[in-house]
Specification:
With 176 residues, the chain is α+β, with helices and mostly antiparallel strands. It contains one helix and eleven strands, in the order αβββββββββββ. A hairpin with a 4-residue loop joins strand 1 and strand 2. About 7% of the residues have low confidence.
Length: 176
């Protein structure tokens, strides 16, 4: 005699479809949060790198007793400075008359992150080039940068003109 087991075969197609729909809906709710977090991380990383470039430029100016200028290209979304030991002979010819190349360090901002505005003294620059210069005594020309992303999140990086110290503030610089 053969025995038949009813209902012991597993899940029906309908039950599997319901579970897949629930998983799909959960993924649709979680995905925007993950991408928003990544975008915020990119902005924070870019701000920290710019602040690190400014701090490094100040330390180079003091340690090597020379003037170091950090350049901000707002249109190309980049930050650069000359990392040569002797800025005067960094490019051109050295004492022996041989060609030398400048050691310019450049950091290009990630996509969707921009240098929105640079304020140096009374001048507000929102396109083109801007510079902050550090002097051997540790002082600087000072200035404030506003870094923003495509979601209108902003950070402000301030360089004190007396001490040359660099400070980051979140959400600052909301006024245009």
């Amino acid at each position: 005699m053969q025995r038949r087991f009813r209902g012991a075969g597993g899940y029906s197609l309908f039950e599997l479809l319901v579970v897949l729909i629930i998983i799909g809906m959960a993924a649709a709710l979680v995905t925007p949060r993950i991408t928003g977090t990544l975008s915020s991380t990119n902005l924070k990383t870019a701000v920290k790198k710019i602040a690190a470039v400014l701090r490094y430029a100040r330390s180079q100016a003091v340690a090597e007793e020379r003037v170091v200028t950090v350049r901000f290209d707002l249109d190309a979304r980049s930050v650069s400075f000359d990392a040569s030991k002797d800025a005067n002979s960094a490019a051109g010819e050295d004492a022996a008359g041989e060609k030398k190349s400048a050691r310019v360090k450049e950091y290009v901002l990630p996509d969707k992150i921009v240098i929105e505005k640079v304020r140096i003294g009374e001048d507000a620059i929102d396109s083109g080039m801007a510079t902050i210069t550090f002097f051997p005594a540790g002082t600087s020309t000072g200035g404030t940068l506003v870094i923003a992303d495509d979601r209108e999140r902003r950070f402000q990086i301030s360089v004190d003109f007396i001490t040359g110290s660099v400070v980051i503030a979140e959400g600052a610089g909301d006024e245009k």
